[in-house]
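Quick question, first post here. What does this chain look like in 3D?
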Amino acid sequence: MNFLIIFHKCSGAIYRTISSHKCDRYIDKGECKMNLGFRSLKSGGEFSWFFQRLSGTILVVILLLHFFTLHFTAGGKITFEVIALRLSKSFWKTFDIVFLALALWHGLNGIRLVCDDYLNNWKWRTLILISLYIIGIIFFTFGSLTIISFRPNL
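> Answer (accepted):
Ran it through. Tokens below.
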């Protein structure tokens, strides 16, 4: 595979070509610091790529802890009373909010990364990015409010 990166100017911005695939993503104006196909940290490409892997690893650990807590410590029966008892403690509320935030960020950032790779029109990318931010804020707000305001009458 040829991973040679070729830079060229097109209408005042620097674009990249990897192998025979032309990509119209903006890298930097003026100077370009690119290593092995990743954008510089200044442009946010490496941070998104790295944090996607980090959040995935953390999500696996949180998911296993969540699964173990619900299925093994509760005796295998998941009822309203078990969930109500669990959510009556602030630790589990915080745990669920962190789980929600990481899962939302990981999923929506994955969609954003795919759109960055396959959508060449910057207007569509911008529209989808704004939509993803709005969807993420709405889902996080409703999910957090549901977890925080949960007060069972037990």
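The CA atoms of residues 87 and 150 lie 7 Å apart.
Residues 90-118 form the longest helix (29 residues).
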